[in-house]
């Protein structure tokens, strides 16, 4: 029961972090006059993968990898639904989002192997 509760809390944390990080990144990009979609995607992907890793009670890397897959599918769907005029001819924001998530997962993996040792722990 404790594991199930831990994973439920982890899910709530990841969803909350996604909403807050995407909103903050959008406001930041808007303030600086930057292209919002790749910044929102990159920041949200990194925050989701990292928060999944940190908040998972067990199987941290597996949890982060699953959230990366969920996030990649979500990003693909959202990029299709919320198509802005400046995004019409490119998939760059989606690739930036995927790259950010993968780099964050790689960083978590390196840290995990260095400090914890076991990959499936």
TrEMBL record:
Parts of the chain that traverse the membrane: 7-29, 35-54, 61-85, 91-111
UniProtKB keywords: Membrane, Transmembrane, Transmembrane helix
Name of the protein in its database record: Major facilitator superfamily (MFS) profile domain-containing protein
Source superkingdom: Bacteria
């Amino acid at each position: 029961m404790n594991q199930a509760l831990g994973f439920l809390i982890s899910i709530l944390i990841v969803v909350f972090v996604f909403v807050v990080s995407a909103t903050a990144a959008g406001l930041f990009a808007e303030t600086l006059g930057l292209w919002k979609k790749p910044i929102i995607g990159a920041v949200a992907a990194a925050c989701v993968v990292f928060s999944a890793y940190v908040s998972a009670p067990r199987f941290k890397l597996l949890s982060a990898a699953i959230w990366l897959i969920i996030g990649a599918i979500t990003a693909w769907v959202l990029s299709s639904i919320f198509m802005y005029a400046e995004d019409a001819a490119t998939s760059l924001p989606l690739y930036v989002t995927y790259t950010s998530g993968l780099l964050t997962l790689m960083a978590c993996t390196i840290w995990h192997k260095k400090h914890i040792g076991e990959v499936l722990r």
